[in-house]
Amino acid sequence: xxxxxxxAFAAAIxxxxxxxxxxxxxxxxxxxxxxxxxxxxxxxxxSVIGILMLFFGLTAILFYASRMEAMWIVLCAVVALAGVFxxxxxxxxxxxxxxxxxxxxxxxxxxxxxxYEQIEGQRSALTRGGVQTVLFVAGDAIPLYEAMDGxxxxxxxxxxxxxxxxxxxPETVVNNPDCLTYFPDPExxxx
Length: 191
What we know:
191 residues; alpha+beta; four-stranded antiparallel sheet; three-stranded antiparallel sheet; 5 helices; 48% helix
């Protein structure tokens, strides 16, 4: 009986993850073949983890609070709040682009619109978590990382349009697409 309960619990968790991923795909569609309304977002797994943290934290508080010590109740509340924060962060950060320009929206900031010619440069670093890059645009720094959905097509489009608008031959720009580096370092341009 105990193993049947564990199997049912595991199946319920996998079903919940599948349902959350399905709903998120419907709420935030991304199709790289579409030419209008393309988007770069944090990976969906962050939202799934946030929902699971919220679910487990609230479930533990609601069903087991009478049997837990105060420290465990606080810990479960912190887990649930971290899940809410992760959900809000993942669903509120996005970069929308088309062939004319792009706009970037973050949790703590309003949406700002940019044109490709405003790109000043880029810096990339290889970390344990993958390639982290910062795109400098019109005095702002836009943090991007390799795991984001739709990042490579955005950087390719931005580089192509930046070269067209600045009348630069793409072959003359030193870049490394494998490390998500398409634009020169902003300090190198001022030297």
